[in-house]
Amino acid sequence: MSLSLGLFIVSFMGLLFAGLPVAWTMAVSSIVWLFASGQMAFLPVLPERIFQGIDVFVLMAIPLFILAGELINEGRITDRLISLANVLFGWMPGGLAQVNIGASILFSGITGVALGDIAALGKVFIPAMAKNGYSPAYAAAVTASSSIIGPMVPPSLIVVIYGSMTNVSIGALFAACIIPGLLIGFCQMTLVWFQARKRGFKSIELDRSLPAIGRSAVQALPPLFIPIIILAGILGGIMTPTEAGGLGAFYALLIAVILYRSINLKQFVTVINQSAVFSSQLLIIVGCGAIFTWVMGMENVPSLVERTVHNFNIHPALVLLVLNIAMLILGMFIDPTAAIILFIPILGTAAQAAGVNPVHFGAIAILNLNIGLLTPPLGVCLFAAERIAGCGLTVLLRETWPFLLVSLGALMIVTYIPQLSLWLPRLLGF
User: Fold this and answer.
1) Rounded distance, CA 384 to CA 376, Å?
2) Is the dihedral of CA 344, 345, 351, 357 positive or negative?
3) Which of the chain's termini has less CB crowding within 10 Å, N or C?
4) Under a CB-based contact definition with an 8 Å cutoff, are residues 46 and 35 in contact?
5) Inter-CA distances, 252 with 101, 288, 323, 325, 333, Å
6) Tens digit of pLDDT for each residue in 228-250?
7) Can you give the pTM of this predicted structure?
8) Which has the closest alpha carbon to 342: 147, 53, 115?
9) Longest pairwise C-alpha distance within the chain
């Protein structure tokens, strides 16, 4: 390792743990590298690299996906999805907890953001579960754990960023993440089933006749068309992700303003502002990440990683295990978006050198880094759920660890059974 690379890594880690936002951490540590390597002539190149990092057509899908999700949230369409989830999942032991997970699956196909799931569903389910005999900590644990399904089920912002950083087909990644996302939901529902039988959690008594199911489905169908439109457009080769995002946002606007009439002009302005701020935050990280990646390329780090894997002839199963452990550790300290921008170009190189399919590794990485949303000290989903429940972090962690274990089990299944993530993309011709 060269001295300049060492100073680059030390400055990055020091600034990150000092609390500097990750975007500025990447920018400042890159400038430190320029000084340390004697490459100050490249200083004017940095703004150009930032611009090139965000001047990517596919990244235009990010603000459009965010806008669609904000319109749905502000339009109070959540109740219709919860009603459908009640009918579909409330019959099982632990009814309200099952509905919580089921609603997360349905809702994630609209927002694709874990914190959006908690913000919309947590305020409904955590008080309702507490009122019906569940402890606030357990209610928060179910809500936080099921929220990681959101970034797996399309449309997913993380998938778009991953694809733009690695040049892997976003359509293929969308298709690859569907079954792993549903697997997470199934594993969590199974856990709740056993916990409910042990703790005496009851099912929800509702009319589940075919007419009742039909009415709930009809009410929930308009917002559920958003992921259908996006997926059909992208996977069918009809639209690019950006075009699909634009159509999805326009459709969300139509159902919120015209069909349900749940958004007025003032709320619409608020939605636009919130979408713009969130999009800007993500794109600033992406732009500064382009500098970080450029420095790594200048130091030949990806080539070094590739040669190391080839020279030691490491078995792919062992490589995947090591990469999973590395990503789990990264996820404890760094947001999934930042982790993808910073480290996936390197970790992906190691996986490819070991013969791992890039789409398969993409599904693994996205699932793995999302699990980090449940692990302290970062654990943003834990903190968000705890703020709603007010139960205390220690008690919440005690209730969350079984969900964390089953999520890790699902991760291992996805890791070592590639067909789960590759079957659908191959079926669709990717």
Assistant:
1) 12
2) positive
3) N
4) no
5) 23, 31, 38, 39, 34
6) 888 888 888 888 888 888 888 89
7) 0.86
8) 53
9) 73
